[in-house]
Design goal:
With about 70 residues, the chain is of the alpha+beta class. It is built from three helices and two strands.
Length: about 70
């Protein structure tokens, strides 16, 4: 079993939360070393990889997809 650990991902729910807080997506982008928050299709691609035969020998991994935010 593996786990996907996403950082901030640009979704309607995140947009609503950011709007309520008085901040903007651009504010969040500045906090990410890669210069932007993640996209849903990037997380989907990681999940598809983990579900594929290419990852058949992976087990017990926590895969962070944060735009380097977790290591900064």
């Amino acid at each position: 079993m593996n786990a996907v650990c996403p950082g901030e991902i640009h979704t309607p729910m995140l947009e609503a939360s950011v709007k309520r807080s008085g901040r903007t997506i651009a504010d969040l982008d500045e906090l990410v070393p890669f210069g932007r928050i993640g996209k849903p299709d990037e997380v989907a691609a990681l999940v598809a990889f983990l579900a594929s035969d290419e990852a058949a020998f992976m087990c017990g991994s926590l895969v962070e997809i944060t735009g380097a935010q977790a290591v900064a």
